[in-house]
Amino acid sequence: MGEGGEVVVVVREFEPVKDRIGVEDVERNCDAGSNGKISIFTDLLGDPICRVRHFPAFLMLVAEMVTDKEERKIVGLIRGCINTVTCGKKLSRNGKNGSNDSFKPIPVYSKLAYVLGLRVSPSHRRMGIGLKLVSRMEDWFREKGAEYSYMATDKDNEASVKLFTDRCGYAKFRTPCILVQPVFAHRVSITKGICIFPISPSDAESLYRRRFSTTEFFPSDIDSILYNRLNLGTFVAVPSDGFSDSWPGVDDFLSKPPESWSVLSIWNSKEVFTMEVRGASRTIRGLAKTSRMVDRAFPWLGIPSVPELFRPFGFHFLYGLGGEGPDAVRLTKALCDFAHNVAKERGCGLVVTEVSSREPLRVGIPHWKRLSCDEDLWFMKRLGEDYSDGSVGDWTKSPCGVSIFVDPREI
Which residues cross the membrane (predicted)? Predict the structure, then answer.
């Protein structure tokens, strides 16, 4: 406790019953848009740890101002989670006891920590509170054996970028794209000549592990995601020609795959939190409403309309996008159109996904440029001197791969 009325900042673990109201006040004060411009506000639906609770290990910390009169006020917070993911790959002999001369790539895993939701009340910034929260969270990461820590931020968030790079030792690592598609008042037509199959979580797990486990950031506990109640299913698209009307099972599918195919899974973020666009002028709101009215009145015209984003809305997140073959882009678009219709049926406002800027299937993902982000900044830091595998070395210095696997639990 400080002397002469001095205020002390205490960083401690979040206590749900005691801290919920204080945390919500900080979130509300920190939400973008306090300057009167168009902005997005987030409602965590009364659960401050909703964005990390589905990970195998997670923690939320709060920064509390304590005066010599025992007055307490939460002025900052941070969330963190840990998972094991693919950081690279190495070659292994594809044969018993190495008798076969062929090699196959196998994933190299690393224990990765993720920092998200760092908030400091505007009235208490430039006091070192953000740095103290990050440092304490990193101590917990190290205690749990995490080898790397990373965070994501908007490129325009100069304060966050400066804190993590200049003061916390993080370096720019990846720049994926966030692609956002509004959910129209009409159903989207799916290209003819394409079959879309829902597959079981067990088949989805097998498909992902056998074809995508060497993709960067692939989670080793993919089964926990696929069996989660928020997962709405995994879907495979193939050309209708030469393919049966029923799903053959993952083993038969992979033993003799079609020339082209595509896959994706849908995560119901609407059940985790909602968003709301505020600060829009009456003109913008009026134009959006008119577009919806026209779309509902004449759905066969397929006129793109702006959904009701000026009240709380939810979205679905598409993850695990992948595919092979010369027609994979067209099949990916069909799956995204299918996902749009699922979102419409469930009352969502947006369909969102995030992919590598080098992802070949990116051109098949419908999105509105104005709503999307061409460069989401990911920063990474190595927490210790040991590496998960000598064949990969320091992951922070590795080149960017073609694809990344974005864990929907991080959204």
Answer: none
Same domain, 221 and 340: yes
The angle formed by the CA atoms of residues 35, 38 and 41, to the nearest 5 degrees, is 85
Q: How many domains does the chain have?
A: 2
Average pLDDT for runs of 10 along the chain of length 411: 67 95 90 63 92 95 85 93 94 60 84 95 90 97 96 88 94 96 96 95 98 97 98 97 86 93 98 92 93 93 92 97 97 98 97 96 96 93 75 84 95 88
Domain boundary among 102, 123, 145: 145
Residues with Cβ within 8 Å of 223's Cβ and at least 6 positions away in sequence, in order, are 201, 205
CA-only gyration radius of the chain, Å:
23
Nearest CA to 148 among 169, 128, 177, 176? 169
Phi, psi angle pair for 283, to nearest 5°:
-65, -45
pTM over 0.70: yes
Alpha carbons 411 and 272: distance in angstroms, whole number: 10
Give residue 33's domain range. Answer: 8-81+114-145
